[in-house]
Specification:
Blueprint lengths: L1 H16 L1 H14 L4 H10 L7 H12 L2 H14 L1
Helix pairs in contact: 2-3
Length: about 80
């Protein structure tokens, strides 16, 4: 139960901290019913919320490193063609 209580406390803190952003999103959704990701991000950024995109960060890191599975696959194909 301590984990749940800590989670509820943390959620409450986040909601309170970003209340103006949540209200701005709610107002926009009342106008247009749906928002695309870039629209959400624009509202959040305007309200001063830092956007963290761990998936984007991971993709960028993978692109910098290259895809090792593709390198291995191309090596295997090259060997088979010989």
């Amino acid at each position: 139960t301590q984990i749940i209580e800590n989670g509820k406390k943390r959620a409450r803190e986040i909601i309170e901290k970003h209340r103006t952003a949540l209200d701005a999103i709610a107002r926009k959704l009342m106008e247009v019913e749906t928002l695309e990701r870039d629209e959400y991000e624009a509202i959040l950024t305007k309200e001063g919320v830092e956007i963290q995109d761990i998936y984007r960060d991971m993709r960028e890191a993978e692109e910098k490193m290259g895809d090792p599975s593709k390198s291995l696959a191309s090596e295997i194909i090259s060997e088979e063609e010989k």
